[in-house]
Design goal:
The complex is a heterodimer of chains A (427) and B (320). Chain A contains 13 helices and 18 strands. Chain A is an alpha/beta fold. In chain A, helix 4 packs across helix 7 (210-226). With 320 residues, chain B is of the alpha/beta class. Chain B contains 11 helices and 9 strands. Chain B has helices at residues 16-32, 58-69, 90-99, 114-121, 137-151, 169-180, 209-213, 237-244, 248-251, 274-277, 285-315, and strands at 47-52, 73-78, 104-109, 125-131, 158-162, 184-188, 204-206, 218-221, 259-261. In chain B, the strands form 2 sheets. A 5-stranded parallel sheet of chain B has the order 7-6-5-8-9. In chain B, strands 2-1-3-4 form a 4-stranded parallel sheet, with helices on both faces. In chain B, strand 3, helix 4 and strand 4 form a beta-alpha-beta unit. Classes of the chains: A alpha/beta (427), B alpha/beta (320).
């Protein structure tokens, strides 16, 4: 029966969209109340003086790759959990694209057992088709019972529209959420950059952003046909936004996300073939990046996530087009996202709606709120504290971040999961 | 001497005065190569390794001859049949070779940027002999020397580059070099063989070959890869030749003294009519091959000079 009072906190409430001074009382792992900044502590309570720093619901990071099973040398639940805690991430939504993939209840049970190594909340997504091969659907019912919060084949697009429509129809019957990767698979095959002047001058195989629009159009047509609950993992191009808006106007149950890298980097950051900047989908032109920041601010894009993808050095020390895509992000999500706040693109409550409240809501989790009775999953951070990112200081087993050497602002001072401190010593 | 580069990875990194310096030296080597005794000791004692991860006969023999005429010890490695097949990474291959203490490394690789990656890991001078669809700098330089000799200058010319621009590193390097030297560049070809973003590159783009060749001083044809001929990018060889093959009728709209170039190997009857390729009054295709050796000698020589100077500074303890 522990009680903690956070005083002098700048409370970021993504639900009420407020940003103001106050105090927050935590009892037995849940938020017990919110009061004035100098609220007196109840008897027996631990008091933490936040000294004006920001206190917000912990980040819910949707789409994290962990190398268990199969690639534990790249990332384990323990290392990812420690990185998450240090990054202010209190709930990690894990991708099923492991080796082998999480496509049976037994595989999910294994991952769930391993996940107890992590000091933060772990929730699992399951594959949508067996072995992520796009031929047969997984046991959506059993996997839901085993705790799968969503179903996805990750960046592997289900090409067979008939099979996908059946998966969607079946999932709708169970109320399950499907996460799609909007992309025309044949157009984007082999591509490592967005077509345009940069890709042409550097001779990198490229794909038009229209491949994303085409993939989205197909998937939305199937969503309309089947009525499934559906989420686009990454919408990264301005040209895809009208289709998303039309789908919502029709009343389809559709949401969309984007990676932090597509909001903070553009295609020219690849520079001289720097493979830490290789992503799927590839980085976009600056005009797209700006449009996507606006789309997050307006709510057209619901979720920002790190798409944490650990890769060992050997997967990246290759020519650009042969290198593995993806970057680690659990620990860099918060400072990278703070760039958007410092540049004036988003307010802190808007940002927290996208990195905490919306993903939690969409996945049916209690997290993401700063309200009475919500779980006390919290992050305390200094939004302005400057530092230079050193990739070898990251707690992930893999160090593939595009922000190595970058000047960033925003440092996590403490992370709590269900009222227990999992990161940070000082207030 | 104003050629300062450590490696020759692309035209993009060269300044116009560096290009001119290299061409001036190549011009001297072109005369040298016409002598009966063509041997220099400029690279005596130095080791040159030609590492070709992609098949090549012409470029590799040109580099080999260039190195040998300058007195270097030249070794050819065909990487297709070697440790690469055993799973060795590019970087490990580079480190292995580096340990053998070569001075000059000539590299061709099917991936764009691969030669840049390799150059970061070795402490000799690296020449890019073609990387993916990215650059082929010595080809652009030999084309530039050929143009300069035929036209008397390398600026204010109208140059039409025709054919498969999208997949051609030759086109990219030429585009950059000829742009740097302030020429008017036209790209001619079907839209399926044009790179994306071409509208932002400061060039004219034509789909009508006659409009593209109108008044041109230089007509540069590109090779069409066999694997792109059937259905994928163009409907057929014969339609391609009809619309984009260089024949007398299309060439007639170019300037009366226009020269015709081709990097080879040619597909006669696909991108170029055989009689034009053989017309000694118009075609400078054989000159290109000749200038190729001279340009590569100049590149090897200049990089070797910079390498010696760098090592001399390091040996004498001068802080660089």
């Amino acid at each position: 029966m522990s009680t903690t009072l956070f005083t002098n906190a700048r409370l970021i409430d993504p639900e009420a969209q407020t940003d103001g001074m106050g105090s927050l009382l935590v009892r037995d792992g849940r938020i017990a109340g919110i009061g004035a900044p100098d609220e007196p502590a109840p008897e027996g309570a631990t008091q933490i003086d936040c000294r004006g720093r920001a206190l917000a619901p912990g980040i819910v990071d949707w789409g994290v790759k962990i190398g268990e099973p199969g690639e534990r040398h790249k990332e384990s639940f323990r290392s990812a959990g420690r990185a998450a805690a240090a990054g202010g991430v209190t709930t990690v939504i894990v991708r099923p694209d492991t080796l082998p993939p999480i496509d049976t209840p037994e595989a999910l049970e294994f991952a769930a057992r391993r996940a107890t190594d992590a000091p933060v909340n772990i929730r699992h997504m399951a594959a949508l088709t067996r072995a992520r091969e796009g031929r047969e659907m997984v046991e959506i019912g059993f996997l839901t019972d085993a705790g799968a919060v969503a179903f996805t084949d990750g960046v592997r697009v289900v090409r067979d529209s008939k099979l996908l429509s059946r998966c969607m129809t079946y999932a709708r019957g169970l109320g399950a959420l499907i996460v799609g990767h909007p992309q025309d698979a044949s157009l984007s095959a082999g591509a490592a950059a967005t077509s345009g002047k940069f890709a042409s001058l550097y001779g990198i195989p490229a794909v038009s952003p229209m491949a994303e629009v085409m993939g989205l159009d197909r998937d939305l047509a199937l969503v309309e046909m089947t009525g499934v609950r559906w989420h686009a993992d990454q919408i990264t191009t301005e040209a895809a936004l009208p289709a998303l808006a039309r789908a919502r106007d029709k009343g389809l149950d559709v949401t969309a996300g984007i990676s932090i890298h597509h909001l903070t980097l553009n295609e020219y950051d690849v520079g001289d073939y720097r493979t830490f900047f290789r992503f799927t989908p590839p980085l976009r032109p600056e005009t797209d990046r700006q449009a996507m920041v606006d789309a997050v601010a307006s709510g057209a894009i619901d979720v920002i996530a790190s798409f944490h993808t650990p890769q060992d050095e050997e997967s990246k020390r290759l020519p650009f087009e042969a290198a593995a895509p993806g970057a680690v992000g659990l620990q860099t999500l918060l400072p990278a996202a703070m760039r958007l706040v410092h540049q004036g693109g988003l307010t802190l409550p808007q940002l927290w709606r996208a990195i905490s409240l919306n993903p939690a809501r969409r996945l049916g989790l209690e997290a993401g709120r700063l309200a009475k009775d919500a779980p006390a999953d919290l992050v305390l951070f200094d939004p302005d504290a400057p530092f230079v990112m050193d990739r070898f200081a990251l707690l992930s087993k893999s160090k593939n971040t595009p922000f190595d050497g970058a000047r960033m602002q925003g440092r996590v001072k403490g992370t709590w999961v269900a009222g227990n401190r999992v990161y940070g010593g000082e207030a | 001497m104003s050629f300062r580069a450590r490696h020759l990875l692309g035209i993009d990194h060269l300044k116009p005065d560096e290009i001119t310096a290299l061409l001036d030296l190549a011009q001297e080597y072109a005369a040298f190569n016409r002598r009966t005794i063509k041997h220099s000791d400029a690279l005596a004692g130095m080791t040159q390794i030609n590492m070709f991860f992609e098949n090549s006969t012409r470029t590799q023999s040109s580099f080999e001859l260039a190195g040998k005429r300058l007195g270097a010890d030249v070794m050819n490695m065909s990487m297709q049949s070697s440790s690469v097949k055993k799973g060795e990474t590019l970087i490990d291959t580079a480190l292995t070779l580096n340990a053998m203490q070569p001075d000059l490394l000539v590299v061709r690789h099917p991936h764009s940027g691969a030669v840049n990656l390799l150059a970061e890991k070795v402490n000799c001078a690296v020449i890019n002999a073609g990387d993916g669809r990215h650059e082929h700098p010595t080809q652009a330089l030999l084309d530039a020397l050929t143009i300069r000799r035929a036209k008397g200058r390398l600026h204010r010319l109208t140059i039409a580059i025709c054919g498969d621009i999208a997949h051609s590193r030759v086109a990219r390097s030429n585009l950059i070099l000829l742009g740097k030297m302030e020429n008017r560049i036209r790209l001619v070809g079907p839209p399926t063989l044009m790179p994306s973003g071409v509208a932002d590159m400061g060039v004219e783009v034509h789909q009508d070959m006659k409009k593209g060749l109108e008044g041109a001083d230089v007509v540069m044809m590109l090779r069409l890869q066999k694997e792109r001929m059937d259905g994928g990018f163009i409907p057929s060889e014969r339609e391609y030749f009809h619309r984009f093959g260089l024949d007398a009728e299309k060439l007639a709209v170019a300037a009366p003294d226009a020269i015709v170039m081709h990097p080879g190997p040619m597909n006669r009857g696909v991108e170029i009519d055989g009689t034009i390729a053989d017309d000694i009054n118009r075609s400078v295709i054989q000159d290109q091959v000749e200038m190729g050796v001279a340009v590569r000698m100049a590149a090897l020589d200049l990089l070797a000079r910079n390498l010696r100077a760098e090592r001399g500074r390091a040996a004498s303890g001068v802080m660089v």
